[in-house]
Amino acid sequence: MASINARRTLATFANQAKIPRLPIPTLQETADRYKRSLLPLLTRADYDRAATAVEDFIRPGGLGEKLQERLHALDKKEPESWLDTLWLNKAYLEYREPTLINVNWWNQFVDPPSGLVASPGQGRVSDLQLDRAALFLSQLTQFNEMINKEQVPPDVSRAGPMCMHQLKNQFGASRIPDEPRDRIVTTWPANAKHATVIYKDQLFSVPIIGENGELPSVQQLRSQLKAVVEQVDSLPQTELQPPIGVLTSEHRETWAKLRKTMAKDAANASNFDNIDASLFALCLDDYASGPDLDKSHRNLFHGQKARNRWFDKAMQFIVENNGRAGVNGEHSPADAVIPGSMFTAILKREEQGNKEINSSNPVSLATPRQLLWNIDSTIGKALVTAENNASKTIDNLSSVLLHYNDFGSDFLKRVKCSPDGFLQMAYQLAYYRQHGQPCATYESASTRMFKLGRTETVRSCSVDTVAFTKAWDDKDVKLSDKVGLFQKAIGTQMEYMKAASNGKYHGCSNWGIIACRGVDRHLLGLRCMMTQEEASHAAIFSDPSYIQSMYFKLSTSNTSPGDYSWGGFGPVVPEGYGSNYAIGKERIRLSISSWKTAPEAEATTFRTTLKKVFDDLGEAIERAD
């Protein structure tokens, strides 16, 4: 995404009509790639059984052809994409576990140029905190206006224009708990003029835009935040509202029922509508998590017992009272990479000094209004239960950072090594060293070259990565041969990311890698076309290999370069790792998460192993260059 201050060229959505629809691969293409992805994970006997099921599925006149026809019929029916609604429902809205950690992503900002407040204390705000939060509000209102007026230049890659639709889902977006699946509320243009501000668990509707769309000065916005703080701090403890936001961390079925019960009260229903419509949430924490990044990033990940948060907002910005800040994002409306450039633009502007852009003339803003709730003993008990459940989930999480400063993309490019390929091979070798076997691995690749495109899965574990990992620590294998296997494995990984030779399937990730050759979205689409009776004899999906190949013990995502912010997410299986990485010119920043209930997958140990792998691979490829 272009800079927030970039000169306007084309309107933001001017290229949408030029962007092709997401194609549906042929059955044979998906079958061939799928079978290839099974090879490193299965025994010979298991592979032969799985391959037979695949071939039976795609045979002429078989079930696969029927499902493929239905998928093409769906494609003709859907106005822009056969996958969009399917993916939103299956990947996100039908998920019933808490979105806390399991769905939401986090992003930590670089510290302010002035540094952090050394000893901010507890139970109060700081001047730096209010200054920084007000600057964020100012910049965010500008960016929202640019999206509304289509002044954000559209993204274009070497392969062509990229879909900008997800920008419409950033501001004024909320996930609504419901049954049997959740709902997403988005509005474009996002014309709300308020943000949800949370301080000491008290929720406020805070006007941040004038009635006629005027953008206030940073100082005016600071005054709005100061008014919130003063109002809350003046209240006796007995008059504080309960921490309603904790309910957003609950199991989705539980939260859906509770919200419906609460919404029977007119005041509560109005509060929910106000929060859902707000441009975003801003959480002012009356504490600091400390200078240790391993600890402070967790405050962005989940907060303290999920307090002072609203996990259903697409974006909630968090500012601690020492000035450290970041974002917690709900994943359903848009992928984390979409607002990344916006965060970078805001932080660059902060680095360059706050030069006022918004109106220097006073803008008429209503006083911030506290949202008052009417709850009974049932909801009161539910709040206690929700906080206990959130605490158990948070306590079960291990999450650490690795900021590796020995080299970055400049070095990797100098030795003719793909930066993304290097990271993926490092994950493979680290996992093999720690666990003695390969595992199914997920790498996200963007499909924004297509209408409403989001992501496709790159199955990074291959026959060639297994050969590379087995040979690397073998003393009997020459270094030149090891490096050769390493390079071959990267080539295979990159090939999976590239378009078919006829150019029919091509897409581009945010970091410049061609993608859209994965099998997972096509297989999902075919599964969703089945009747219940057909599913009972679809061996391709009932065979254990199908679940095994999607049981991603390594789930990874690239949000390079990470110069101004870095982030992460939770593991997707009980004994797995979740790892986001960002490759800068001179450093690599990444996060690793795991669950403590699976001691065989321990994030801190994996970080140590991965750092050693970086050292070993870097030294070897430099010697071989």
From TrEMBL:
InterPro entries: Carn_acyl_trans (IPR000542), CAT-like_dom_sf (IPR023213), Cho/carn_acyl_trans (IPR039551), Cho/carn_acyl_trans_2 (IPR042231). The keyword Transferase applies. It comes from the Eukaryota. One of its GO terms (molecular function) is acyltransferase activity. Transmembrane segments: none annotated. Keywords: Acyltransferase, Transferase. It holds the Pfam family Carn_acyltransf. The active site is at H331. Residues 22-612 form the Choline/carnitine acyltransferase domain. Belongs to the carnitine/choline acetyltransferase family. This is Choline/carnitine acyltransferase domain-containing protein. It comes from Umbelopsis vinacea.
